[in-house]
Amino acid sequence: MTEHDRDRADGRTTVVLITRDRRDELLRTLGQLRRLPEHPRVIVTDNASTDGTAEAVRRHFPEMTLLSPGRNLGAVGRNLAVRQVRTPYVAFCDDDSWWEPGSLRRAADLLDGRPRLAAVTARIVVEPDGTEDPVVRELRESPLTGPDWLPGPALGSFLAAATVLRTEAFRSGGGFHPGLWLGGEEELLACDLLRQGWWLSYAEELTVHHQASLLRDSTERRVLGLRNTLWFTWLRRPLLPALRRTGHLLRTVPRDTASVRAFAHAAAGMPWVLREREPVPRELELRLNRLEMARRTSPARRYVG
What we know:
This protein has helices at 3-7, 23-34, 53-60, 76-82, 103-112, 135-140, 167-172, 186-195, 218-236, 239-252, 257-268, 270-275, 282-295; strands spanning 13-19, 41-46, 65-67, 89-92, 97-99, 117-126, 131-132, 163-166, 199-210.
């Protein structure tokens, strides 16, 4: 690739992100996205911020598309944005993460030549230290196997803050489920994509930078993440694996108020979960089981905070 190629715009990918009450961090991220050589269209869904986020985006980034649904949609705010996407690929990031220059172009190249590849997930670099996020090792050492045309290890899920998806695949999978709202919401969509015959892959040559927000509520994120893990388990895992995974979580999560809240919320939602329950076929369950076993030793899968 020549220097001219690296600097020219690339119209294959739209960047989508959701935000709520993180005005300054969002403005930093949008500044990074504005400087990308690919010059992608950027769509921001503001989940009912009360800190002047919408006004600041309109003032400082008038060329970007701002959606203001008037309420906090959680991850479904991404679905709202993807309805407006007209490019073959959509790149997600968070309001505290951004794509490295050239990565969107490379991701589109990888997807162009592999029509059954639904998504590529990037290496995540934690700022300001420049160290790798612990989850990268898990992605790089994925226990799943896949066809030799994949650009990297086959994955069983993806990280919305660091993934470029084929727009067609995202829509065919139904987007993010409104019942999960936010917190590990990717696992259900990924499972449904795999069920449809799509592939997910890690791509080492792609990079996303993440400077964790100082405004996050880590305890609330843990409650939502554990609740959604339980809901996903009962939505898609066969009966015995679902019982085993639930039992393992009961034995291993911290014995504190946050865990009690998570299990209580999960139990309260079981009526709708059981109504929508569609266990995966045996071949896919074997893949999910391999992932579960590998994640039990991952430093990125601790229900703490």
